Amino acid sequence: MKQLTRKEVKQYLLDILVNFDQFCKQNDLIMYLCAGTLLGAVRHHGFIPWDDDIDVCMDRESYNRLVSIAKKNPVFHKYYKVIDFQFGDSNYPYIKVIDLRTKMSQQFGNDVADYLWIDVFPMDGLPDDEKQQKQLYKKISTIREILMLSFAKPGQGRSFAKKVLKTPLIPLAKLYGLKRANNQLSKLSQSYDYHKTGLIGDVLWGDYGKEILTVEEYFKSNKVTFEDYTFDTFACWDRYLTELYGNDYMEIPPKSKQVNHNLQAWLR
């Protein structure tokens, strides 16, 4: 197998994004750049130089239609496949789109299938009451911790303290179960209908107080450039990025905060 250079890894990730965007348009699905990928588009007109992943989001209606399409045939444009915990080929509660031509180092992924991927996050409804919002995010955060522990390996962790604390909790998380955790996360994230509450955000995988928009804001789209391609995002991207990364999001962070996944991948 041929190992891919860092530049080639980014090109394969970009190819997934471009082909998925075409697939969404062909099926009338709304897909937006979000998180660090949107920041890269605005600040660098492409990848953040030290970053090596791609994040996109979809309103829950588009997202569920994508799941329905993928159930019948998860592969599109020959090389790309939609994977999801509901299909039994992902450990995460959100969709990933993978490139079947690639192979990832096992240390970089916890999915049944280790390929280069992009993440697809559903955007769900939120209550307008802040107390209820906090309660919802707290519940989801707890289940997320259980989920991550359910497929963690003993001795893993960024610090010695975390390694020690994690180890006795892993068997309990495994007892709770990966499938149960994912089903619970999916159910909790869809507790509120954004058409009724008027608020939409990344309830499933986001943090409280961030990535929350009004429905009117969300469905007003704008074009941004990413690596010489044009993609859709929400027209209120400035407020979104400010809430997510702070008022100085256009400034380059210090080297100590320039973190990437150091992905290692090969062509199969």
Low confidence ranges = none
SSE order, one letter for each helix or strand = EHEHEHEEEEEHHHHEEHEEHE
Oligomer: single chain
What fraction of the residues are assigned to beta strands by DSSP?
15-25%
Rg estimate, integer Å:
18 Å
Q: How many runs of DSSP E, i.e. beta strands?
A: 13
Shape: globular
**What's the rounded overall pLDDT mean?**
91
Question: Main beta sheet, described?
Answer: 8 strands, mixed
Class derived from helix and strand content: alpha+beta
**What is the CA–CA distance across the termini?**
6 Å
Helix count equals 9
Helix content: 40-55%
Pfam families: LicD
Protein name: LicD family protein
Organism: Limosilactobacillus avistercoris
Domain LicD/FKTN/FKRP nucleotidyltransferase: 24-246
In short:
The chain has 268 residues and is an alpha+beta fold.
Describe the structure.
Pfam families: LicD. By secondary structure, the protein is α+β, with helices and mostly antiparallel strands. The chain is built from 9 helices and 13 strands. The chain has helices spanning 6-26, 35-44, 60-72, 130-150, 160-176, 178-189, 194-197, 215-218, 237-245; strands at 2-3, 32-33, 55-59, 75-76, 80-83, 95-99, 102-104, 117-125, 199-201, 212-214, 221-226, 229-234, 265-267. The strands form 3 sheets. Strands 2, 3, 4, 5, 6, 8, 9 and 10 form an 8-stranded mixed sheet that branches. A 3-stranded antiparallel sheet has the order 1-13-7, with no helix packed on it. It has a two-stranded antiparallel sheet with strand order 11-12.
